[in-house]
Amino acid sequence: EDQWELITGNSMTIDHSAVIDHLSQDIGISKTVDDVTVTVDSATAGRDCFYVLVRVDGLEFKSKHGYDFRDVSLTLNPTPDSALTGYGMEYWGIDDDKRAVFLLDYSYSGAEYLDLISQNIQVDLSLEDILQDGHTDKTKTLKEASWYFSFILDYQKAFDTMTLPDINATQDGSDKITKLTNIELTNTGIHYQYVMDDMDNLPSFEIRAIMKNRASIDLASGIGTPTDDNKEMVMSYVWRVPIKINELDYIQIGGQQITVK
After folding, report:
1. Do 217 and 236 form a contact (C-beta atoms < 8 A)?
2. Is the pTM of this model over 0.85?
3. In what order do the strands lie in the sheet with 216-217?
4. Strand partners of residue 227
5. How far is Cα 232 from Cα 197, in angstroms, rounded to an integer?
6. How far apart (Å, rounded) are the C-alpha atoms in residues 16 and 180?
7. Could you tell me which residues are beta bridge partners of residue 161?
8. Separation of alpha carbons 83 and 156, rounded Å
9. Are 248 and 160 in contact (CB under 8 A)?
């Protein structure tokens, strides 16, 4: 809920909060190295993705800086079969207890979605070295250490889905039109596919979820994989924060608006 307010500037409704609570599960595992404590706070699971909320305590964090881990390593057991996977860690800010807050998002594409649903998944997460202003010419290592976590993610919780009509979307940076089919919306992401004209020049589209309160939610990450016949590309994207479908006004894709009813 804190992340929702940080992004949108709006408070989350009670119903929306209930959806997040339903999809989320407390983890509450902390590891301390030399008075620096990293906590895997909670996780939120979607159809083909999940988010992990991480907090760091024991260092002096300042709002004028950004923070990062030098290395983030994540593995699942079991892993989705025949899937392309991706994950990333994003710094969110400083909470009321002066802890740095990070959100890790993991997504996969190309596997049968039932690979993860209706079973428990073991997640092994390794975090190494805390950086200030990472990936800049002012990068400073605040703490050289490693933190290791292993926890179970429950994938047996239901989530909402909605099928949207096919559209002709305008590609980013051009006036070329691509037909998007099999568009499916979930609490945690959006999925679609299209015919590949040029494997070396795949199209991209601006995608946003516009809520009824005018909050605008963009994408955190995405991944794609070709169909078995190598003629179409199947794309899976993760919202920056989970949404409540019946509080959506419309989805914006490539200059087109799809009203959600």
Report:
1. no
2. no
3. 216-217, 207-211, 248-253, 256-259
4. none
5. 9
6. 28
7. 186
8. 20
9. no
* Three-state secondary structure string covering the chain: CHHHHHHHCCCCCHHHHHHHHHHEEEEEEEEEECCEEEEEEEEEECCCEEEEEEEEECCCCCCCCCEEEEEEEEEEECCCCCCEEEEEEEEEEECCCCCEEEEEEEEEECCCHHHCCCCEEEEEEEEEEEEECCCCCCCEEEEEEEEEEEEEEECCCCCCEEEECCEEEECCCCCCEEEEEEEEEECCEEEEEEECCCCCCCCCCCEEEEECCCCEECEEEEEEEECCCCCEEEEEEEECCCCCHHHEEEEEECCEEEECC
The dihedrals phi and psi of 56, each to the nearest 5 degrees, come to -125, 130
Rounded distance, CA 19 to CA 242, Å? Answer: 9
Residues 104-162: tens digit of each pLDDT: 988 776 544 444 555 678 899 999 999 999 888 899 999 999 999 999 887 655 567 88
Give Cα separations from 49 to 57, 110, 146 (angstroms): 27, 12, 25
Residue 20, token pair as written in the block: 């997040």
Nearest to 192 by CA among 237, 250, 143: 237
The set of residues, in sequence order, having a beta carbon less than 8 Å from that of 209 and lying 6+ positions away, is: 190, 216, 217, 239, 243, 248, 251, 252
Q: Which candidate, 182, 240, 236, 246, places its Cα nearest to that of 216? A: 240
pLDDT per residue as tens digits for the range 50-74: 888 899 999 999 999 999 999 999 9
